[in-house]
C-alpha cells in the first residue's frame, strides 16, 4: 500500500469518527427532549428558549451529518481515484522492474565481457613479467659466470705470483750457498795470511832484538839504563810543571768555584739538543678473515659510513689480507676508533646502532686508561699537587708518539734525568723535575689548537696555576722564547738527553736515506778520498784514502774536517764516528 492510500484511509476514518460523534450527540439531545414534562407552560420563556436552542442544535447536527456524508462520498471517490493511481503506479513499477531486469542483464553481460578482457590482459602482463624475469635471470647467470671467470683468473695470477716467489726464494738460497762457499774460501785464505804474518812478526822481533843489541854496543849503555836515565829526567820536569799547574788550578777554582762549574756542566749538556718530532697517524687492526671486511662495509657501505661519522676516524679497507687501517691525526680518537672496531669484530654484530653503543663503551674505557696512566706517571715521578685538567691532558699523551717514542714515557724519563742533574748541581730538584715533566704537555692539544706545542703548553700551565718558573721552562724548551733561568736550560738538556739517546726514536725512511747520502757526499768531496762507507745505521763512517795522496797527519786532519762539517750541516741523534783508513800495499812478483 502506497503512502497516498494510507493518507486517504486516515481521512475516511477521521470523518467516520466525526459522524458517529454527531449522531451520538443528536441522540442524547432527543432523549433529553422526551424526558421533559409533557405539558409545559406555553408561556414559559425559558422553556421556549431551550426548545429553540435544541432545535437549532438538531438542525446543526443534521447539516453536519449531511456534510459528513458528502465528505465520505468525496473521500470514497478520492479513494477510488487513489486506487486507480495506485494501480497505474503498480503498472509503472512492474514496467520499471522489467526495465531494471533488462538493464541488469545487459550490465551482467557487459561485466562478463570486461572480466574476460581483464583476464586476457592479465595473462598478457603475466607473460611479459615472466619474459622479463627470464631475461633478468639470464643476465644474473651471465654476471655470475663473468665473476667466476674473473676469480679464476685472479687465482691463477696468485698462483703465478707464488711460483715467482718460490723461484726467487730458490735463487736466494743458491746465492746464500755460494756466498757461504766464498766465505769458507776467504776464511782459509785469511788463516794462511795470519800464519804468514805470524812468521813475519817473529822475524821482525828477531831483527829488533839484534838492532837493540847493536845500539847498546855503540852507545855503551844498556836499554834499561838508558830508559831509567830518560824517565828520571822527564819525571823531574813533569813534577815541576805539575806543581805550577796545580797552583794555577787551585787559584782559579777558588775564584770561580760553584758558579763556573754549574755553567760548564749545563753548557756541555745543552749542546746535544735535538729538534721536535713527527708522529704516526695510522693504526692497523688484524681481522680473523677477509669475509669480515664485507660485514664491516655493510650493505651499500652504510656500516663504514656510520663508523666514520660516529668515531671521526677514517677506515681504509684495501687488498691487505686480513687487516684494515684506521687513519686519524688525533691519537686518542684513533685509539677509541681502533678499540671500537676491535670490539665490533669480536662481537660479530655490526650495524649503525651497535656502532654507537660500542663507541660509547670504548670512549669510556680509553678515558679510564688515560687517567690511570697519568696517575701512574705522577706517582713514578713523585709529583702530587697538580690540577685535575692537567692530569687528564697528561693521560692523553699515553697514545701520542714522537719519532716512535711514547711522549708520556719520554716525560717520565726527562723528569728523572732533570732531577739527577739538579741534585748533582745542588739546585731545587722538585721544581726542575716538575718543569721537565710538564714541558711537552702542549702536545696533547696540538691537533685541536694552532701553534707550537711549547707555547700551547705554557698557556695551559699558566691557566691551571703553575709557577712562572715552570711556565718559562715549558715555553723556552724549543727556543721559541730565549731561556732565562737555570730551570729552562736544564729542561732543554734533559729533553735532549731523553730524545737523543740511541734507540729512543726512529725517523722516517726518507730522512734516514737523505742523511746517509749527505754523510757520504761530505766525506767523498775531500781530496785524496777513494771510497766512503756509512755503517751502523749512519752512526759510523769509514773513509778509505789513497796512501800516496794522504799521509798519516793528513788522515787525522781529514777526519777532523769531516766530523766538523757533519756537525755543522746535519741534525742527528747521538753521535757519528769518523774513521779514516790509510792502507799501504807493496806488490812484488816472484819469477
Describe the structure.
By secondary structure, the protein is mostly helical. The protein is 72% helix and 6% strand. It is built from 15 helices and eight strands. It has helices at residues 3-34, 45-219, 223-270, 291-297, 302-311, 331-347, 352-381, 388-396, 407-424, 429-437, 453-463, 468-475, 486-500, 509-524, 552-569; strands at residues 282-286, 314-316, 323-327, 401-402, 405-406, 529-535, 540-545, 577-582. The strands form three sheets. The protein has a three-stranded antiparallel beta sheet. A hairpin with a 2-residue loop joins strand 4 and strand 5. It is elongated. The relative contact order is 0.04. It is found in: Cell membrane. Pfam families: HD, KH_1, RNase_Y_N. It is an enzyme of class 3 (hydrolase).
State the gist of this model:
Keywords: Cell membrane, Coiled coil, Endonuclease, Hydrolase, Membrane, Nuclease, RNA-binding, Transmembrane, Transmembrane helix. This protein is mainly α and 591 residues long. The chain contains 15 helices and 8 strands.
Amino acid at each position: 500500500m502506497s503512502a497516498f492510500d494510507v493518507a486517504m484511509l486516515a481521512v475516511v476514518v477521521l470523518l467516520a469518527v466525526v459522524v458517529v460523534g454527531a449522531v451520538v450527540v443528536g441522540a442524547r439531545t432527543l432523549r433529553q427532549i422526551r424526558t421533559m414534562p409533557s405539558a409545559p407552560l406555553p408561556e414559559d420563556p425559558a422553556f421556549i428558549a431551550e426548545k429553540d436552542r435544541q432545535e437549532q442544535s438538531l438542525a446543526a447536527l443534521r447539516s453536519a451529518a449531511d456534510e459528513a456524508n458528502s465528505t465520505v462520498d468525496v473521500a470514497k471517490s478520492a479513494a477510488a481515484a487513489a486506487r486507480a493511481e495506485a494501480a497505474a503506479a503498480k503498472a509503472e513499477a512492474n514496467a520499471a522492474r522489467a526495465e531494471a531486469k533488462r538493464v541488469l542483464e545487459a550490465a551482467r553481460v557487459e561485466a562478463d565481457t570486461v572480466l574476460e578482457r581483464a583476464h586476457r590482459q592479465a595473462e598478457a602482463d603475466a607473460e611479459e613479467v615472466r619474459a622479463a624475469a627470464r631475461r633478468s635471470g639470464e643476465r644474473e647467470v651471465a654476471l655470475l659466470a663473468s665473476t667466476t671467470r674473473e676469480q679464476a683468473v685472479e687465482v691463477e695470477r696468485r698462483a703465478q705470483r707464488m711460483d715467482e716467489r718460490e723461484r726467487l726464494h730458490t735463487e736466494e738460497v743458491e746465492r746464500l750457498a755460494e756466498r757461504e762457499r766464498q766465505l769458507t774460501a776467504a776464511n782459509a785464505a785469511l788463516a794462511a795470511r795470519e800464519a804468514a804474518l805470524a812468521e813475519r812478526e817473529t822475524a821482525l822481533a828477531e831483527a829488533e832484538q839484534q838492532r837493540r843489541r847493536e845500539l847498546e854496543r855503540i852507545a855503551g849503555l844498556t836499554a834499561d839504563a838508558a830508559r831509567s836515565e830518560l824517565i828520571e829526567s822527564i819525571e823531574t820536569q813533569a813534577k815541576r810543571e805539575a806543581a805550577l799547574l796545580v797552583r794555577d788550578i787551585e787559584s782559579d777554582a777558588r775564584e770561580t768555584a760553584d758558579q763556573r762549574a754549574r755553567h760548564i756542566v749545563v753548557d756541555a749538556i745543552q749542546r746535544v739538543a735535538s729538534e721536535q718530532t713527527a708522529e704516526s697517524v695510522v693504526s692497523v687492526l688484524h681481522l680473523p678473515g677477509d669475509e669480515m671486511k664485507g660485514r664491516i662495509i655493510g650493505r651499500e657501505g652504510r656500516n663504514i659510513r656510520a663508523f666514520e661519522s660516529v668515531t671521526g676516524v677514517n677506515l681504509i679497507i684495501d687488498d691487505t689480507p686480513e687487516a684494515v687501517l684506521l687513519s686519524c691525526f688525533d691519537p686518542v680518537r684513533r685509539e677509541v676508533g681502533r678499540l671500537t672496531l676491535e670490539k665490533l669484530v669480536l662481537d660479530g654484530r655490526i650495524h649503525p646502532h651497535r656502532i654507537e653503543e660500542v663507541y660509547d663503551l670504548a670512549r669510556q674505557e680509553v678515558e679510564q686508561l688515560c687517567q690511570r696512566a697519568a696517575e701512574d706517571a705522577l706517582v713514578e715521578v713523585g709529583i702530587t699537587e697538580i690540577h685535575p685538567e692537567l692530569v687528564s691532558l697528561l693521560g692523553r699523551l699515553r697514545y701520542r708518539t714522537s719519532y716512535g717514542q711514547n711522549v708520556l714515557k719520554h716525560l717520565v724519563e726527562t723528569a728523572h734525568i732533570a732531577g739527577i742533574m739538579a741534585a748533582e748541581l745542588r739546585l731545587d730538584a722538585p721544581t726542575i723535575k716538575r718543569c721537565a715533566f710538564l714541558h711537552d704537555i702542549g702536545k696533547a692539544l696540538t691537533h685541536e689548537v694552532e701553534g707550537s706545542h711549547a707555547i700551547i703548553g705554557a698557556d695551559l700551565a699558566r691557566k691551571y696555576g703553575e709557577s712562572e718558573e715552570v711556565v718559562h721552562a715549558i715555553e723556552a724548551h724549543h727556543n721559541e722564547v730565549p731561556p732565562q733561568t737555570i730551570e729552562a736550560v736544564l729542561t732543554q738538556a734533559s729533553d735532549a738527553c731523553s730524545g737523543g739517546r740511541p734507540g729512543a726514536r726512529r725517523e722516517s725512511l726518507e730522512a734516514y736515506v737523505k742523511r746517509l747520502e749527505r754523510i757520504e757526499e761530505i766525506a767523498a768531496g775531500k781530496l785524496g778520498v777513494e771510497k766512503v762507507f756509512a755503517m751502523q745505521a749512519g752512526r759510523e763512517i769509514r773513509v778509505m784514502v789513497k796512501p800516496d795522496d794522504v799521509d798519516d797527519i793528513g788522515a787525522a786532519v781529514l777526519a777532523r774536517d769531516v766530523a766538523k762539517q757533519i756537525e755543522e750541516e746535519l741534525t742527528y741523534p747521538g753521535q757519528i764516528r769518523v774513521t779514516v783508513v790509510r792502507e799501504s800495499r807493496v806488490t812484488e812478483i816472484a819469477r
